[in-house]
Specification:
Helix content is 38%, strand content 12%. It has 613 residues and is an alpha+beta fold.
């Protein structure tokens, strides 16, 4: 088969775990033309294959493992991939992206997507190699940690260089914010997609490939690649700290800007932030650069394990925590000891837990104890800064022990159980990423309208202003960023391309798609793809909301609307100047997005984008 669009393998897999059946299918060309790849094609598949009666942890739910047209081509960076499903944590659209080397290996194994349904009668793993696929017994792997599973599968297949995505005990125990992990520390963290793996008795997916897809106009791709590499060098030469220290440099930035979640978001600055920042980590620990495939930025790092007594002897390096982890398992839980946060990150990686949701769940429980809102011996010593209890709770969540069983269902669900809803910081049941919306104009609107819930990776207004004025002025900026991030997620390209100089923008994406497809693509065409994908994910959620109006779900927690930041640069600020400004800003975004006043897409916008409800 010759697929009409270049940059694709041209095939995908249908895997029915109930029947143990695997079918190799040709990619539909309209998927590429209308949805591009990655999150776009996944949205189309899930829209067609699931419905409001599909339970997230049922055999009927569908899990999509996907790449984009940039995955694995000779382009920098091109190492990302994505997962999508109806999310067990939120009950709505869930997607999560991960870097490293797994994505290119899927493409080289001969596939663009894997569509998984059903439930295996026993634990299995899926192995793909050069156009072929098989389901193999994983009974002896069930219950094992992530690192051990990775080592054992490589040994079983005699393929030390193969790439593996796996779940840990948290996914097996259906923790609703369990993640999937590749390269032992790269996580598709959000939304509980590891629990979807677990519900299907799918322990892992392994890949080994040797066939590169057709890259399109190789001369143009090479010129773009060289340009991006140079722009990355420009940023590095000018001292951009991401290129030197990874995301840990953001700890100080976030705390200085009043963004840093502290003690369950009661504050936006942490008095001990320096203990968790890049300078302290660089001074105390030996680091190794571990860039993703073809990446000129190389922000990913690991740490030498020789100074950590709690790491097994055969491990030479473990993950250095990313910013989100340093915040959510650090200051948000009142933990200022860097080794404690590194230890917690290690446990989450081995057990298969999303660090953002884990930190949010623990911090909420700590505040509830601090305020006397929960009681019982199981809550003894659950307090901000208590390292031993903090680490113990991570294990209890993964294995659903004691109060860990309640927390394992998610922040919103646990808050409802304990009647502490005002302490649960989430949108659509997804806990907030580690950026306080009370410190950035319009950021709250981005969180409120994101299909996945409170993710910072679905929109980021281009402003450094605090919310001391109406957010109406940033609506166009927010929509532009939502469209850009949507296209990046369709291409499956890293969002840290904002940290090259000049930053990668929408016009770059137009040039990139034109080069990879070897067809002229206009800004209008790519904008329509972004709008189509954004709208389809919203429609997916509307279908799940049932009789409730979408505007009822585009909300923010009371804390961010009613409780001003107590100190710092944004002292006295909430996410919006008042409720009226929030409503007016929402309506302005709705209008520009082709939605009516209740948040439903208009018939005109649906027709324009060719979407049928």
């Amino acid at each position: 088969m010759t697929f009409p669009y270049k940059g694709y393998a041209g095939y995908y897999l249908e895997v029915d775990l109930t029947k143990g059946k695997i079918i190799k299918k040709e990619m539909e060309k309209e998927w590429a033309r209308l949805y591009l790849g990655g999150t776009g094609i996944a949205a189309k598949i899930l829209w067609d294959r699931t419905g409001p009666d599909t339970e997230p942890l049922s055999p009927e739910n569908v899990l999509v493992v996907g790449t984009g047209p940039l995955t694995g081509v000779m382009f920098s960076p091109s190492g990302r991939m994505m997962f999508a499903s109806k999310g067990p944590l939120t009950g709505v659209w869930a997607e999560s992206h991960v870097g490293g080397f797994l994505g290119p290996e899927i493409k080289y194994a001969g596939f663009d997507f894997i569509v998984i349904s059903g439930r295996s009668p026993k634990p299995v793993y899926l192995f793909l190699r050069d156009g072929d696929a098989q389901l193999l017994d994983a009974t002896d792997l069930w219950g094992r940690f992530v690192f051990e599973t990775d080592v054992l599968i490589k040994g079983l297949e005699h393929e030390p260089k193969m790439r593996i995505i796996t779940i840990g005990p948290a996914g097996e125990n259906l923790v609703k914010f369990a993640c999937t992990t590749s390269d032992n520390f790269r996580n598709a963290g959000r939304g509980g997609l590891g629990a979807v793996f677990g519900s299907k008795n799918l322990k892992a997916v392994a890949f080994k490939g040797s066939t590169r897809p057709t890259d399109g106009n190789e001369n143009k791709i090479e010129l773009i690649r060289k340009d991006i590499v140079q722009r990355a060098k420009n940023a590095k030469d000018e001292g951009h700290l991401l290129h030197k220290h990874g995301t840990s440099w953001l700890v100080k930035v976030a705390s200085d800007l009043d963004h840093y979640p502290t003690r369950n978001w009661q504050s936006g600055e942490f008095e001990d932030a320096d203990n968790l920042g890049h300078e302290t980590l660089a001074k105390k620990y030996k680091r190794f650069r571990r860039p993703c495939y073809q990446c000129p930025i190389g922000c990913s790092e690991t740490l030498d394990t020789s100074v950590f007594e709690w790491v097994e002897k055969d491990r030479k390096e473990i993950a250095k925590p990313e910013y989100e982890t340093l915040a959510m398992l650090g200051g948000n839980c009142g933990i200022s000891d860097s080794e404690a946060v590194i230890h917690a990150n290690y446990l989450c990686n081995e057990l298969g837990l999303d660090t953002i949701s884990t930190g949010s769940a623990i911090a909420m429980t700590m505040e509830a104890m601090e305020k006397g809102l929960v009681e019982g011996s199981e809550f003894d010593d659950v307090e901000f800064g208590n390292i031993d209890k903090f680490l113990e709770l991570i294990d209890k969540i993964a294995y659903r022990k004691d109060i860990g069983d309640i927390l394992a269902d998610g922040v919103a669900q646990a808050a409802e159980h304990w009647k502490i809803e005002d302490l649960a910081m989430h949108v659509k049941k997804l806990p907030f990423a580690a950026w306080d919306p009370r410190a950035k104009l319009g950021l709250g609107l981005s969180y409120a309208t994101a299909a996945v819930g409170a993710s910072h990776l679905r929109g980021w207004p281009s402003t450094s202003e605090i919310p001391d004025k109406s957010a109406l002025k940033i609506i166009d900026s927010l929509i532009e960023q939502q469209d850009l991030k949507t296209i990046k997620d369709c291409l499956t390209i890293c969002h840290f391309t904002h940290s090259i100089k000049p930053a990668l923008g929408f016009d770059d994406c137009v040039d990139i798609v034109s080069a990879v497809w070897d067809k002229e693509v206009t800004t209008e065409e790519l904008t329509d793809i972004a709008r189509r994908v954004w709208l389809l994910k919203r429609l997916f959620n509307i279908r799940e909301f049932g009789d409730k109006k979408p505007i009822e779900f585009d909300t923010l927690p009371k804390r961010f609307m009613k409780e001003p930041l107590p100190s710092g640069r944004a002292k006295g600020r909430t996410a919006f100047i008042d409720e009226e400004d929030f409503i007016n800003s929402m309506q302005a975004l709705y209008a520009k997005r082709g939605l009516d006043e209740e948040g439903y897409p208009t018939k005109e916008e649906m027709a324009r984008l060719g979407i049928k409800s």
